[in-house]
Amino acid sequence: MKIGLIGNPNVGKSLIFTQLTGIGVEISNYPGTTVDLCSGTICHDRQVIDVVDLPGIYSLDGTGSEEELVRETVISGEYDVYAVVLDATHLERNLYLLLQLLEFGASVVVILNIIDEAERAGVKIDTDRFSQFIGAPVITTAASLGRNIDQIIPLARFHARKGEYAVQYDRHIEAAIRSLERLAGSTRAEALLALQGIGNDPVLMDAAQTIVPEIVEEHRMTAHQLIAGNRHHAATRLADAVITRDDPRMVTDPDRYLTNAFPGIPIMVTILSSMLLIVFMVGSYLEEIIVELFDLFIIIPIQNAGLNPLLYEVLFSLAIAIQAGIGIAFPFVFTFYILISLVEDSGYMTRIAFLADRVMHRFGLHGQAIIPMVLGLGCNVPAIMGIRQLGTRRERTIAAFLITMVPCSARTVIIAGIVAAYVGILAAFSIYFFVFILIIITGVILSRVTPGNQLGMVLELPPLRVPRMRQVMIRSWIHIREFLVIAMPLLMVSSVILGLLGFYGITDLFQNAIAPFMESILGLPGFASTALIFGILRKEMAFETLIVLAGTADLLSVMTKLQLYTFALISTLFVPCISTIAVLSREMGWKTALLISVYTLILGLSAGALLQLLM
Amino acid sequence: MSMESVEREDLLLAVSRLKTRTGNEPAAPDLADFLKRSTADISDMLVILQERGEVIIADDGTVSLSSAGESAACVVMKKHKVLETFFEEMLGMDRAIAHQQACTLEHHASEETISRLDDFIGAKPSTCKLGRFIHDLHSCQTCGCQMLSECQEGDTVRITAVKGCGRAARLADLGLIPGVQVFIRRRLAKTFLVQVKECDIAISADIASSVLIERCR
Fold first, then answer.
1. What pLDDT digit, counting tens, does each position of B91-131 carry?
2. For B24-35, what is the mean pLDDT?
3. Is residue B130 part of a domain?
4. Which of A208, A476, A590, B51 is buried most deeply by CB count within 10 Å?
């Protein structure tokens, strides 16, 4: 038996899911999409039950990839029962999705979650009446307290019903539905979708396209607006029939502070910069331990094994790739993602989007685009995958450029390892500052030159809630998984290639050709240029290579502070790592990937040259 | 000489129908008879259709549809049938009356409305305009209709219309539809935080200016 948890975003669906399934959650991409699905298996009375946490959606009529996915499962009958999670504090809006689901004739049970908060706010819901109206069972739960969660599975197993609640549509829509039923033999739900331009059956779609203009002409509204309006109206009537309200107790509203320019923006800046600082400190500390352990148990044994030189080169390159990957993945990327997941899970991320909306408009983006950009501070790869959420090609192009410039963890390693360690912590932060300024300038220019148009932001700000540890860990894992499965393998391959290039002397040839330029324009010693070139393929390698080539860990004895600073600035700015380039070309096409690489290369080199000129 | 698309569709249908009815290819006088037009008019139109490659006029004056003409006639026929059903369902008319109505409406249903529908739904976002829609609302503008983007923090307003492009579908799903009352919780520069159905929704300036409202007193 398969149960699908369905509901709006932020209704506590995932929390219910983790409480139902306990450990052993499996996160996977739905085949052919990039939508993450959490699934788990439970044993109830010796019956195996699969539970899947479907992505949070507002509607089954949408064209977003998540809405399409959920709609497909509903149409194909993939789940035996849908457990519809509704937020009892926002019942009216949540009923919209339930009414849609009932139209599809899916077997449902209704879970009225967050009932504790609703009670506190003086909202009473008559569940018996509710259940009679929709013809399906209803229970109340409070997932944050674990209340009634154990009743969900028995209810879904034995009492799920194909509910019914007839939404009265406008007479034109009703006539259109009947016409389509007659002409194309479609169901009511299919006809409604077809009127909104969704469907595959050519006969049905043709017929719907002929009728829709008549309806639009009559109402001066799109068919979707008309249908949505009727459904919302039905939801309001149903909500009024089952809800009684006492006087709500006054509650303090943190948004009074968080969404105002003051103190909202200082709070946001404080939160984000203290996050960076924590990642900086925890990351550097842990990295040192991990790298040392690796050296001791893997790198040194390989060096001493007396292998054949070619085999040694391959093994050694692989080992240092894994060492660097893990040295960065766990200390920096993971720390960052745990912190950011806390911010996401609490609902604060949407406040950041709200506050940033205006500034992001200057870049031709909107508030929602700040989310992947902040994620880019961990690793650019998942961040670039996150830009699919943005509406138009123009928005995605601009976001891809800017995200690539966001200093990721690997660049944090360079900044922490070189600048903070040898030059000073303020100098380290000044690099972030410069990069930040360059991102702003790039954004402003891109918004002028990028063709296409932009959609704005429509984003729900859910009530702020205390994050749950398990949720946070699952969310962190979703983020870091992309780093591990996409970035890491590429790192390993490119490390081996790099090793082989060095082995056959190609790196030296390249270095000799380019060293005079590096020395005269950037003022960097010859060996630093090799380290920079290594950085093209692997950012964090730039630092390691620099130490190896300098022949000493005391970099100050071979390079000046200015040279170190220049080196870090250039490697932070120039050419994204190979994994980022790969993801960029997959998401945006190779032309954009190339353009971004060339742009950042020029940017990095000019920043270095400028520094050299000025100092 | 130009030719209205209504006439073209009628003529194509007539050729096809007469062929099915009599089994012979019709000539211009037969078509004129069928459409209750003068033979001269019909001949002129047939020449244009021939130039377009939709009909073939044989040496003996009989007319047949080319394959392009046949598929065009087929499209018109299909549309006709759908609209007939729709009007029948909607008005509860008997078949004959529905048939007449569909006859006069079928042609107008396409180009003009479809291009407007594109504006409306935002099928071509680059051409997304308020267009005729705002025209209709012009009278409303003079009596206090505003865009959401002109509202201030603390206002309570009622939505009167939402421009049908870009994010309109998402707005509708979240309950931002004509007739709904909205409270402006926060206005930060040009970004709005509105409360609708007890939920807080952040809306960018560009979207706020596609929502028309009237003030509630």
1. 664 454 555 555 444 444 444 444 444 444 343 333 333 34
2. 85
3. no
4. A208
Q: Are residues B151 and B72 in the same domain?
A: no
Section A541-562 average pLDDT: 78
B7: closest CA among B40, B39, B49?
Answer: B49
Burial A488-501 (b: 16+ CB within 10 A, else e): bebbbbbbbebbeb
The CA-based angle A295-A289-A555, given to 5 degrees, is 75
For A317-376, how does the pLDDT look when each residue is reduced to its tens digit (9 = 90+)? 888 778 877 877 778 888 888 998 899 888 899 999 999 998 999 898 999 899 899 988
pLDDT computed for residue A250 by the predictor: 63
B1 and B98 together in one domain? yes
Task: Judge whether B86 lies within some domain.
Answer: yes
- B2: phi > 0 → left, psi -120 to 50 → alpha, else beta; which? beta
Residues B149 and B103 in one domain: no
Note the pLDDT tens digit of each residue in A479-501: 788 778 877 888 788 778 877 88
List chain A residues with CB under 8 Å of B110.
213
Residues B205 and B155 in one domain: yes
Return the amino acid letter for A211. I
C-alpha A154/C-alpha A304 separation (Å) is 62
Best of B170, B181, B207 to mutate (most A CBs within 10 Å, chain A): B170
Q: For position B96, what pLDDT does the model report?
A: 47
Contact by Cβ (8 Å): A318, A500: no
Label the pairing between strands A138-140 and A107-113.
parallel
**At B199, which CATH number?**
2.30.30.90
**Cis before A213? omega within 30:** no
- Contact by Cβ (8 Å): A1, A83: no
> How big is the CA angle at A448 (ends A447 and A453), to the nearest 5 degrees?
60
Report the alpha-carbon distance of residue A139 to residue A88 in Å, rounded: 11
Q: Which has the closest alpha carbon to A302: A273, A322, A281, A276?
A: A322
Compute the distance between CA of residue A1 and CA of residue B209 in angstroms, rounded to an integer: 48
Residue range A119-125: mean pLDDT, rounded: 90
Q: Cα-atom radius of gyration of chain B, to the nearest Å? A: 25
CATH code assigned at B34: 1.10.10.10
What are the boundaries of each domain within chain A? 2-162, 171-245, 261-454+469-614
Domain with B184 in it: 144-215
Are B105 and B2 members of one domain? yes
Q: Which residues have CB under 8 Å from A461's CB, separation 6+?
A: A255, A259, A347, A350, A351, A354, B193, B200, B201, B202
Domain count for chain B = 2
From CA B172, how far away is CA B185, in angstroms rounded? 19
Distance (Å) from the alpha carbon of B117 to chain A's nearest alpha carbon: 7
Measured between beta carbons, which residues in chain A are less than 8 angstroms from residue B208? 456
Q: Both tokens of residue A72?
A: 């497909």
Q: What is the mean pLDDT of chain A?
A: 87
* The two three-digit tokens of residue A394, written as one number: 């123009």
* Residue A305 amino acid letter: A
Q: Is B2 in the same domain as B98? A: yes
Identify all chain B residues contacting A183, using CB atoms and an 8 Å cutoff.
81-82, 85
| Paired tokens of A179 | 């016409």
Architecture of domain A2-162: 3-Layer(aba) Sandwich (3.40)
